[in-house]
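subagent[fold] <- orchestrator: predict structure for attached chain, return tokens only, no commentary.
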Amino acid sequence: MSESSLSLPHRKRIEALYVAHSAMIRAKLQWLGFSGQTLEDLHQEVFVIAIRHAEELRDDARAWLVKVARGVVVNYRRRRREVLDGEAGIHKLSTGADPEVREIVRRGLDALGEVERQFLVRYDLYGETIAEIARDFGMTAERAYARVRAARKRLRRAIEEDAYARPDE
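subagent[fold] -> orchestrator:
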């Protein structure tokens, strides 16, 4: 449903929800570590979903909006993780992976610095959220994502260098 196809009562309800809860949703997204354009995009997505469900919304939709915001964040992180995992091949770190692959990745992790290794292990192996890791390192979630990406690049390079150094294996 587009905004222009909303009936006047539903449009007024969405406007009232936006006025009443926009700042709270923005604050929750910031608390989860988002800023800049990502914050704006996620904030907007929450209210786009609200527009789609305008006919179903009650006047006390605050809790529903918070739930939608959480879902938007989970989906955003899942999409980002899929993209980043695909870039780095980190999905091969699972325990079900071929032992040879695990050994190659272990050697690659050993080539990283302690902080880089912590970011990758905590995020990719233990499944900790970026918000948790960022809080522990005293940085924003976006900065923590950047550190994970950089660590993945170094891991990929270390694995490639290891493969060139061991051509017979």
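orchestrator: received. Logging for downstream: Residues 84-89 have pLDDT under 50 and may be disordered. Residues 110 and 117 are 8 Å apart (CA to CA).
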